[in-house]
Amino acid sequence: MADEKNKVSYGTGVNINLKGKTALVTGSSSGLGMEIAKYLARTGASVAIHYHSEKQQAEQVAAEINSNGGKAAVFGGDVSSQSDVQNIFQSIDEKLGPLDILVNNAGIDGKRQLCGEDNPEDWVRVIGINLMGPYYCSREAVKRMKKNGHGVIINITSVHEFLPWSGYTAYCSAKAGLSMFTKTLAQEVSESGIRVVSVAPGAIKTPINKDVWGNPDTYRDLLTKIAMPRMGETKDIAEAVTFLVSDMASYITGTTLVVDGGMLLYPAFKHGG
Fold first, then answer.
1. Which domains does the chain have, with CATH numbers?
2. Known catalytic residues?
3. Per-residue pLDDT tens for 114-125?
4. How far apart are CA 192 and CA 214, in angstroms?
5. Which of 130, 136, 191, 264 could tie 107 with a disulfide, CB 3.0–4.6 Å?
6. d(C-alpha 25, C-alpha 228), whole Å
7. How confident is the model over 235-245, as pLDDT tens digits?
């Protein structure tokens, strides 16, 4: 009966159970990462809640998971720092055990700046968090997963691994680079029992973009860029990630699952070219 409450049902007769697995979700003190962490915990995984500056929020997320019968612990550090990442993974080894699942979610879009008018230090910071961070974390995860003969790494990219976004060259470059990192790493570890997959969210409603969805005019404009008549919710991404880290997706690796409500369908063309 204990296992039953750790199952999340995705339709009649289909259940996902991650009991006995340990997962790290970077940037899980808020937004997408928080929702992903909660979903993985509901399916039975022990979850490492990671934060950089929002320690209190991370502790609240862990407390909620633990009070609901799950298992979570909090780990802080800068994913763009190799030494911080090494310390995070060592602490997870000691507190939660060997890592089975890594979700590279931590990221920033940075300031909107046109190339040539921008500050190179801002560009480097975006690349450091969005691309070097997943590299440092994946590097540590792969070492451990190879020893265990299994593991799943999920990289949260964006529709901007495909779509250019004026003023955000660093962000788009990092996400496109992370997509190719996913493919190449998946190829490298394909015989080690490790899968690597990207999830590319479209416009997802989170506190960080409330200035867009909280304003009727900007929200209306945003909806013209999405084929389905709504913004995505954090659960849309969390459900996709939960599926991909489960055995139901055991033959999926080295690709991107786009969860964007049809943003890449160029909905402006619905009424002709």
1. 4-260 (3.40.50.720)
2. 171
3. 999 999 999 999
4. 46
5. 130
6. 28
7. 999 999 999 99
